[in-house]
Design a protein that fits this description.
By secondary structure, this protein is of the alpha/beta class. It has 8 helices and 9 strands. Strand 4 and strand 5 form a beta hairpin. The protein is globular and about 55 Å long. The protein starts with about 30 loop residues before the first helix and ends in a 16-residue tail after the last helix.
Length: about 260
């Protein structure tokens, strides 16, 4: 019997000056999510709903802009931005700076919803790959808030809450070198890993963990910081407590989980 033909849906491309908006997460495995999680070190925070998740979309910025020149060119409808060194043969060093910040609470509700951080045009890399990942064009961040203002919002939330992240050190560092160790945080990457062909432990990313437990891709197309933060919290609430079989009173994972 011939199978019905699936017609691809049109992809909405963000217009200049905009960034992707969060997409609702699917309500899968409801039964698993309504189960009461076992007690552990996390209940100190979760029982009083003092727990949040954060995700940051970042852009790549030259560490020393005076040492390079901006190069702009159009390709496939996208204005690419790259940099070339002023001295031939010298490599340009880059740093990752926060561009879009999102924080959700224990129930997945928005606290900071995809807040844009100001960056001038042509001060960060833009190419087909970066646009595919974050949807940020050369002028998407011009109307954003000052970095220090957004950083102060995050710092205030950090003072009273446990912050859950995945690869959070990079996110914290992108917020003007906010120090992960100065606050109560937990990085889910400390619990999941895979063994590579060279027998080295490799952290498993957000999308792979989410897909393993909830059966769906979290990061289809361009990423949304808020969707990723919400997905991080969902993993922390409904996957991590079930896999944390030992040392439940400690964040330390002597027996990290793999798949």
């Amino acid at each position: 019997v011939p199978q019905p033909v699936t017609v691809p849906q049109p992809v909405t491309v963000p217009q200049p000056g905009t960034v992707p908006q969060p997409t609702p997460l699917p309500d899968s495995v409801v039964a698993a999510e309504t189960a009461v999680a076992e007690d552990g070190w996390w209940t100190k925070w979760t029982k009083v709903s003092k727990c949040m998740a954060m995700d940051v979309e970042k852009v790549s910025v030259p560490i020393d802009p005076s040492q390079c020149t901006v190069v702009k060119f159009w390709k496939d409808g996208l204005l690419n931005v790259t940099f070339k060194p002023n001295v031939s043969g010298k490599k340009i060093k880059y740093k990752m700076e926060a561009a879009i910040v999102a924080v959700c609470d224990y129930d997945g509700q928005q606290i900071i919803n995809n807040e844009i951080i100001h960056h001038d045009q042509f001060t960060f890399k833009v190419n087909a790959y970066t646009f595919k990942v974050n949807g940020i064009r050369h002028d998407s961040l011009v109307n954003g808030a000052p970095l220090q203002l957004v950083k102060s919002k995050v710092e205030k939330l950090l003072e009273e809450n446990l912050f859950v992240t995945i690869r959070g050190e990079n996110d914290f560092n992108s917020l003007d070198k906010l120090k992960l160790g100065d606050y109560d945080t937990f990085d889910l990457n400390s619990h999941w890993y895979r063994v590579t062909e060279t027998d080295k432990h490799q952290n498993i990313g957000l999308n792979d963990i989410y897909k393993e437990y909830f059966g769906q891709d979290l990061q289809r197309g361009q990423h949304s910081a808020f969707t990723d933060a919400k997905g991080t919290m969902r993993i922390f609430r409904f996957a991590y407590p079930k896999e944390k079989k030992y040392e439940k009173e400690s964040k330390v994972n002597s027996f990290p989980y793999t798949f």
